[in-house]
């Protein structure tokens, strides 16, 4: 693998294969042509589940099972059971399983898992819950009822068993690697608040830890392991977190230590991932993010609020779009009692997906009394299925936050993220008048100004290299507002970074202007290098640049490090009040800038007759700390209702 590491580790072998004693492999029938399933599901009694257990292997090497109903209520005689967490993979059911004397069709992935489970010692828990078999997948009503009970199903199981798929050659080599990283995780972790006791590792620091060198097979195996699809499926969050004890993780015939994998990946992600042999593996990076979320659940505990769960799980995937919401309800405060889940969050597979997303967005805004969920909204052009204000939970969720998110508490005490330091609505809660229809969201707030012509959309590659887009955006700002904004340079410097937090106490607003000027001069020099007419470039741009101070020339790279918020966003200027802002790429001239009650940031809306379409959140210099609310209280703005469609 291509990686910058070249250090060695002591040869230590830790870990045991999950199968011992050479247990014989069982085989399920795999007919060349799919056969019709002759097993018929009976109606499940109220608050009951089906459980499966293995009986024997038939004469034709077909695994035989028994499926039986059990009440989930405390008074019921619920036997000890495990719950299986796995990926369906190819949904084609081409493998037969004999269940209660009848044929049930299952996927190939589940067939492999069952063969492994049948040979696995599971103590006194002879029963197991497996969604594909224990739930009638053709019955939407039953599916919804069972999903609403999922928290209890996994909580009441003896343990969750995770099936990652077939064997990986050399997987035993990961044992000592995970052992070494686990040791570093423990050493570097503050036992009081789970924070890190030291700064992130440099390459020299990491080499001194004696982890394996870049070419060691254990890194390749770990990368292959983390590339298994289980790590990015949205249902696995609940399945792993709700396990009453640490899950049992199986990869083919090998068993991994869940706690060590969790701690090792959390340590690697926070301390050194970019300088490990995994640094160029995007899929592995995604898996470490998932494991980091599991680690946060372990450390924070409790029920989280829905908006935090949805924001933390945007990169997870689901074959059924509605499951992007339903799979998280069991972890939320709202889902702590399956007999009383708010209607908007109750699993209903007969309800159109657009209506599920719309109603969940509205519910979250109303129940949280803030507009934090709007950070996930991507502008939807007119004519698209969803209302513009509704989150599409299946959309590409890659976005750079404007607000810094920190753990706090929901109004009802649940762990929750809050936006910091932005507070555009000065802690006022959401004001939601009655809407004329389900597709319209009525919100109260203040119209601040009209948007002028926005600058070009900033690309990550340009910001990280030449910086020419920033240079021309600065030229536009200089020519439009220099006579009306004596603080223009600082306003631009801060706005382009959305005043990102550098430390717990320092923001970009506290940084010297010299770094900003150094970045612009570097962009100017890069432009001269590629231009065929140097004189034209100088005439157009040199007059907008302030001469650098020889005693403090600044560091362009220090400023470049904090431009994440500008990725795929646009600088803009308001027409009448000369506000300078950083807004969504979909904004255009004639949109309006407003502050909505309950919002940490201002927002861009697009007039649509007497209504408005939601375009996105923005950073606006001079509006991020409740200034508009105080001006409204002084009579400078008028409150109004915005009907979003």
Automatic annotation (TrEMBL):
What sequence ranges are listed for the domain Heterokaryon incompatibility? 81-239
Coiled-coil parts of chain: none
This protein's superkingdom? Eukaryota
The UniProt entry, under Pfam families, shows: HET, Het-6_barrel
Do you know which InterPro entries this protein is assigned to?
HET (IPR010730), HetReg/Transcr_Mod (IPR052895)
UniProt protein name: Heterokaryon incompatibility domain-containing protein
Q: What is the lineage of its organism?
A: Eukaryota, Fungi, Dikarya, Ascomycota, Pezizomycotina
């Amino acid at each position: 693998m291509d990686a910058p590491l070249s250090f060695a580790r002591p040869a230590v072998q830790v870990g045991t294969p999950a199968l011992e004693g050479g247990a014989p492999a069982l085989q399920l029938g795999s007919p060349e042509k799919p056969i019709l399933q002759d097993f018929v599901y009976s109606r499940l009694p109220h608050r009951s589940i089906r459980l499966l257990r293995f009986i024997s292997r038939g004469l034709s090497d077909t695994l035989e099972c028994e499926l039986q109903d059990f009440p989930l209520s405390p008074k019921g005689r619920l036997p000890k059971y495990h719950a299986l967490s796995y990926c369906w993979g190819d949904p084609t059911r081409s493998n037969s399983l004999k269940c209660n004397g009848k044929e049930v069709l299952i996927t190939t992935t589940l067939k492999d898992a069952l063969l492994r489970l049948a040979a696995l010692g599971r103590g006194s828990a002879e029963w197991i819950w497996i969604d594909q078999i224990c739930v009638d997948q053709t019955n939407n009503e039953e599916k919804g009822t069972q999903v609403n009970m999922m928290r209890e199903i996994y909580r009441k199981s003896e343990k969750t068993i995770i099936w990652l798929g077939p064997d990986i050659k050399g997987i035993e080599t990961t044992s000592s690697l995970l052992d070494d990283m686990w040791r570093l995780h423990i050493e570097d972790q503050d036992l009081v608040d789970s924070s890190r006791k030291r700064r992130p590792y440099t390459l020299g620091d990491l080499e001194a830890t004696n982890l394996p060198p870049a070419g060691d097979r254990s890194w390749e195996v770990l990368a292959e392991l983390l590339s298994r699809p289980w790590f990015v499926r949205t249902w696995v969050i609940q399945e792993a977190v709700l396990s009453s004890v640490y899950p049992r993780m199986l990869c083919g015939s090998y068993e991994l230590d869940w706690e060590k994998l969790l701690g090792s990946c959390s340590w690697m992600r926070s301390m050194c991932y970019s300088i490990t042999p995994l640094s160029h593996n995007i899929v592995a990076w995604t898996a470490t993010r998932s494991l980091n979320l599991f680690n946060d659940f372990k450390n924070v505990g409790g029920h989280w609020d829905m908006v935090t769960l949805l924001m933390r799980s945007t990169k997870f995937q689901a074959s059924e779009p509605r499951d992007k919401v339903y799979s998280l309800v069991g972890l939320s405060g709202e889902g702590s009692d399956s007999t009383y889940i708010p209607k908007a969050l109750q699993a209903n597979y007969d309800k159109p997906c657009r209506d599920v997303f719309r109603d969940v967005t509205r519910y979250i805004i109303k129940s949280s009394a803030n507009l934090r969920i709007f950070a996930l909204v991507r502008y939807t052009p007119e004519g698209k299925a969803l209302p513009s204000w509704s989150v599409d939970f299946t959309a590409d969720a890659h976005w750079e936050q404007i607000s810094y998110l920190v753990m706090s508490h929901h109004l009802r005490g649940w762990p929750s993220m809050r936006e910091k330091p932005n507070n555009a609505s000065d802690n006022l809660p959401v004001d939601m008048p009655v809407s004329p229809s389900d597709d319209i969201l009525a919100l109260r707030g203040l119209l601040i100004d009209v948007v002028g012509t926005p600058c070009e959309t900033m690309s990550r590659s340009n910001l990280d290299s030449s910086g020419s887009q920033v240079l021309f955006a600065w030229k536009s700002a200089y020519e439009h507002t220099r006579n009306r904004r004596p603080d223009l340079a600082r306003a631009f410097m801060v706005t382009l970074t959305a005043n990102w937090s550098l430390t717990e106490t320092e923001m970009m607003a506290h940084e010297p202007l010299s770094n900003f000027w150094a970045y612009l001069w570097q962009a100017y020099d890069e432009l001269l290098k590629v231009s065929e007419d140097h004189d034209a470039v100088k005439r157009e741009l040199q007059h907008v640049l302030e001469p650098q101070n020889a005693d403090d020339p600044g560091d362009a790279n220090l400023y470049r490090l904090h431009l994440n918020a500008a990725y795929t966003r646009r600088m803009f200027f308001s027409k009448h009040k000369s506000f300078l802002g950083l807004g969504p790429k979909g904004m255009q001239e004639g949109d309006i800038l407003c502050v909505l009650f309950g919002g940490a940031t201002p927002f861009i809306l697009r007039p649509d007759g007497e209504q408005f379409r939601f375009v996105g959140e923005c950073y606006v210099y001079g509006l991020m700390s409740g200034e508009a609310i105080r001006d409204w209280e002084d009579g400078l703005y008028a409150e109004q209702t915005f009907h979003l469609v």
